[in-house]
Specification:
alpha/beta
Length: 249
């Protein structure tokens, strides 16, 4: 294990995959599910406007296929079911393409590469007797922990997660690297003296994608082609540089 404040340097080699070309215009606005309390992926800026890496990529994709985006705030735990029920056209949320999720929704090609961290008190590991783990509700990390019968505490956002850690309600957290970026900047988090390691379980790493309403199957080819196009044009790189301190491709 290594101290958390030195940890990020060792794990920022994230790589996105090249994607297929091709896009088509849609005459109606696309309803796009987003998160508003998950920086740097999706959050509200000082003026209250929705912004973030995933939201910036979604805006670029909509523009590329000639459609307007109508962002609708949702929660992670309800995003997949909302798509399956037809509430949204796609979700601009970096989701691991798990077997459970792929039975309900479609997925774009990878938006970025994701890994999962265990961030905990020294001497504590997931699965240790009595170890309580904070996880985001509806996350792949929560699903994995349930299968392992770990003692978990749900959090709706990073603020709740930090509060659980600071109060000792949780001994550690299982969290995607991308989400940890904002957490580790906060003084209250830095003062906890937590240590971090990458979890090596295959189910907790992989390509993070946008999820698509299964009734809108045509969107997959459009969004995949648009993603390839914004990478060629340098738009993806500009969004990357605006919101992330490292390159994800």
């Amino acid at each position: 294990m290594i101290a958390f404040r030195f940890f990020l340097v060792a794990v920022l080699g994230l790589v996105s995959c090249p994607l297929a070309a091709g896009a088509a215009a849609d005459s109606r606005p696309l309803k796009v599910a987003v998160l508003e309390a998950a920086p740097p992926l999706g959050y509200r800026d000082a003026s209250g406007q929705l912004t973030g890496f995933a939201i910036g990529i979604a805006r670029a994709l909509c523009a590329e296929i000639g459609s307007q985006c109508e962002f609708e705030v949702t929660r992670l735990e309800s995003s997949v079911d909302g798509l399956a029920a037809g509430q949204f056209d796609f979700a601009a949320i970096g989701l691991l393409n798990t077997p459970e999720r792929s039975q309900k929704v479609l997925f774009t090609k990878p938006i970025y590469r994701s890994v999962t961290l265990w961030v905990g008190r020294p001497g504590k590991q997931p699965g240790d007797p009595g170890t309580r783990i904070s996880v985001f509700r509806g996350s792949a990390q929560e699903s994995y922990g349930k299968r392992q019968h770990w003692q978990m505490i749900g959090a709706n956002n990073e603020t709740e997660m930090i509060e659980q850690l600071a109060a000792g309600v949780a001994h550690g957290a299982i969290v995607p690297l991308m989400t940890s970026l904002n957490m580790q900047r906060k003084p209250v988090f830095q003062q906890l003296g937590l240590e971090a390691t990458v979890l090596q379980q295959p189910e907790l790493a992989g390509n993070a994608s946008f999820a698509i309403n299964p009734r809108r199957g045509e969107l997959k080819a459009q969004l995949d082609g648009a993603l390839d196009s914004i990478k060629r044009k340098g738009i993806y790189d500009r969004v990357n540089s605006e919101f992330l301190p490292f390159r994800v491709e």
